[in-house]
Amino acid sequence: MKGLHRLPPLLGLGLVAALLVLPFSGNAYLTTFAFTVLIAYILGQSWDWVAGEMGYVNLGHYAFYGIGAYAFAIVLVGGSPFWLAFVAALGVTAVAARLLAVPLFRLHGDYFAFASLALLPLLEVLAYNLTPITRGADGIVLPVAQVLQPAYLIALAVCVVTFVVTLRIHGARFGYALKSIRNDEQVAETVGVRIAPVKRRVLVLSSLFGAAAGALQAWQMSYIDPATVFGLNVALAPIAMVLFAGSGLRYGPLIGVLLLASMQQWLLVSVKGFQATLYGATLLLIGRFMPGGFLRAKWVRRVPGLAEFGREHHEHATASAMQAPGQAGGELPLPTLQVAGERPLIELQGVRMQFGGNVAVNDVSLSIRAGEIVGLIGPNGSGKTTLFNCISRVYTPTAGRVLFDGQDLADLGRDGIARLGVGRTYQIPRPFSDLTVQENIAIPLMFGANPLSPRDALREARAFVDYAELGPRLYDRADALSVQEKKALEFARALACRPRLLLVDEVASGLTPAEVRRFVEHIRHVRDRYGITVIWVEHIFSALEQVVDRVIALEQGVLIADGPLDAVVRNERVLATYLGAAATAPQASAPPLLIRGVA
Ligand SMILES: Nc1ncnc2c1ncn2[C@@H]1O[C@H](COP(=O)(O)OP(=O)(O)OP(=O)(O)O)[C@@H](O)[C@H]1O
């Protein structure tokens, strides 16, 4: 319904206005309750930047609340004014978060979640035992003063800032870096995203808001001890509130905190004795029947107005992108590279990749000139994909050197190699699943050698989308595409890396003959028009035949042939690899390896 998209911001403004007058109403009970809700929102939303946006479930977020509370209390009790103590709390917590980021981000998934959770008991024990600083189990009593009103107003201001930061993150390059990490951090790196600094920055950012919440609550309560600021029983409540409504949604943390905090308070007052059971049961039911939070439930989608609160990020982005003028059709916005001369663009010198006793790539040396299209063939398991992974640094070769335009790639990370000009696809497509087709392609444009703003990148992405014939799917999520469409999307995303070298891994398998022909035309076009060098892993020889300058064959990681396709398919070793004993039989020696239909 028209105009309903304005409902959330209008209600939000109304809410802020009501909250602004509340502390002047004289109702201390309501003001104290609203204060705890504000603190919970700051904690829940700042947690969601790391969890919902980046996909790292930081169960120890409350540790930043505790560190902030302690730093604030210690400085305030030392005689400093409020603002100095507040700034000290933020500073100490940010330093702690920066240090903790180093060990924590060595871990992924459940390991990260459990390691972060372990911070809470660890810090609680520290707070109990560092008695000279923390006063141990006695806790710290802050100077008693009537601070509810100022603490409340500052908390409200921090809440507004928290929400504005959330909006800013959603549309910024930083936000897209987070979303790409959430989807597939290895792929994010191979399209140019420098993931390590992004992870550190978001943890420090979220810690600052956690610390602000801790400092304000310590100020308002006038007392802290280890159990109240690091206790597991309180630490997970803000996280549960976010999960209740929907992590990763613009309004999820806000609505989750408002509803669950109100329910908690109501249960506390009216259902004495059972409140914890009922609270837990509600969360379990939501988890069971509406995973992803109730705002993502199908029935919410059907309720006009309410649906606005459950919109995924890409739906907000799509709404604004639809108003932006597109740059569709025609040529790709790519530079035209010089391909003249015999200069090698990529050179492998004795590259070896070993997984335990399995040698996947065995001392491979080869050289490919700028502007060549080279087919890479070999039976299943012969090391083709592993060779690609050695070039794009998904794997660090066990031995040997990879030189790109004369530069040793050993010193570069995956993102650096992408920025140097290596784009790739994956045998099993790995798009950023919960982003749209347009966003998938815009990400390399935002993080490549000449990074564009999100707005420009989204606009420029349209040309690549059209090139891949995915125009009608521009605003669809990548996980809604068919396998073939995902392959086309990956090809377009690799081109959006503005590559000098394109690594194409079995893109044609499963395509109809007409689609294979169109794809071959694309490969030829990007080389002829833009000078892009291509290495194409493919089992469909009839496709390779139409476009490659030469072919390299691998067998059990060893390079066994390198030359024109018709010579390679007559090579005895290649024949034996593909046809086994039949190749050595007298009748099989005459005809070359079938070019059409060999798989
Ligand atoms: N991460 C890994 N850990 C252990 N072994 C691996 C790993 N990656 C690849 N291998 C092994 O390396 C060998 C080469 O695999 P690779 O995927 O490179 O072959 P391929 O030629 O691309 O095969 P296909 O045509 O089936 O894709 C296989 O024996 C595979 O099991």
From TrEMBL:
Gene Ontology molecular function: ATP binding
Keywords: ATP-binding, Cell membrane, Membrane, Nucleotide-binding, Transmembrane, Transmembrane helix, Transport
Membrane topology term: Multi-pass membrane protein
Location of the protein in the cell: Cell membrane
Entries under InterPro entries matching the protein: AAA+_ATPase, ABC_AA/LPS_Transport, ABC_transp_permease, ABC_transporter-like_ATP-bd, LivM-like, P-loop_NTPase
Transmembrane segments: 12-43, 55-76, 82-104, 111-131, 151-169, 202-221, 274-295
Tree of life domain: Bacteria
Residue ranges of every copy of the ABC transporter domain listed in the record: 346-581
One Pfam family linked to the record: ABC_tran
Listed PROSITE patterns: ABC_TRANSPORTER_2
The protein's name in its UniProt record: Branched-chain amino acid ABC transporter ATP-binding protein/permease
Organism of this sequence: Aquincola tertiaricarbonis
